[in-house]
Fold this protein.
Amino acid sequence: MIREISPDEMLQLLSANPAGVIVIGYRYFSHILIYLFSRQVPAVMISDGDAPKAGEWCLLDGTRGELECSGRPLRLPEEEDVIPESFEQSKVGALTGGIVKTIDSEEIVLEASISDSDGALVARECGAASIGLVRSEFLGLPRNTPPERDDYVSLAESIWEAAGTLEISWRLLDIGGEKVLPWMRATTALTDTLGIRGCRAYKLEGVRSIIRAQLQAIASMKNHDRCTFLIPYVSSLEEFLRIRLDLQKDIGSYQPTFGAMLETPSACYMAGEISSHTDLIAIGTNDLVQSFFGASRSCSEVAEYIDPYSPAIVRFLSVVASLQKERSYRICGQFPILPYVIEYFIGLGFRRFSLEPIVLPQIAQRCSRINAQNMRKICDEIKGLDKSIDVLQCLRTAMKSEK
């Protein structure tokens, strides 16, 4: 059971492989929830007033998001009572090449975001189109010394083997905010939510040495041509070009493809210009909504401000979608998994999503129930609304009519 949690405590918790976790306070977009989810650890978020007391027995249902507490041992329900029918159905059948078609035959590409080789294996078994995101900062952790080239060779080989023939997008070291690793000196600039993040940290020699180790490790592998490197938290075209040039110098003759991960509103507005210099644009929605709403993703006290049904975020995303040319932007993060959100993303024109492997079958089902043309009209309608509750009701009514 956790309330506030430091980066060190988060790493220790993940390495302990808990059977389940109770999170006090709503922090859906926090890194701890994301990594628990990626490792399929049941977790529920509850208010402080609902926290269990010492000595109570608890039945944690991660599928339903429910917690039952009692002063005495609880009788476990039969398995069929624990797993709701909707979840059971979502596990039936795999994707074919990561493609699912909407009712009106629009193709949606579903990729997988992973944290380790187990995630890569699940992605392949689910039929993901590719490994859309490898969170390299947590590979092989926790550890108190910086990982070296040989460490990354071993870690990368295990992911490559588990992924089979899937293409892989390797996000280079992404630190800052909650993600300050044990071997780093936790300065105020690094721990600040809007401080030194992602590629902003590459000017630090300790971080740069890790980036070199990652690049050189993958360059030494036989199938390195399956890999695209994602540069995280890119702020501008100038920054992307400068960092890409520096990284190319670090790895000599091996010249891989570099993509840009955009995670702030200002960067997303420049997506059209940046995309003309790279083959891949990824939109990191977890950090994006934090910046957009001005509310920390790890702070439960301001969680209500991150509103997936705000007319403002729909209007903003509509502008970003319009910047897509011949290539679709890859949408990453937890945001599309929320009820009715991937539906309006599709209505706005996005067609490529990298999500946790465990949700891909369920997301595929949701996509297959959408009429993209109809949803486009719904999005035009909700962009003109004034209140979040009206947006949510409009989406809910639209999806009921599709059934």
Notes: Residues 149-163 form the longest helix (15 residues). The chain has 17 helices and 13 strands. Confidence is low (pLDDT under 50) at residues 79-93.
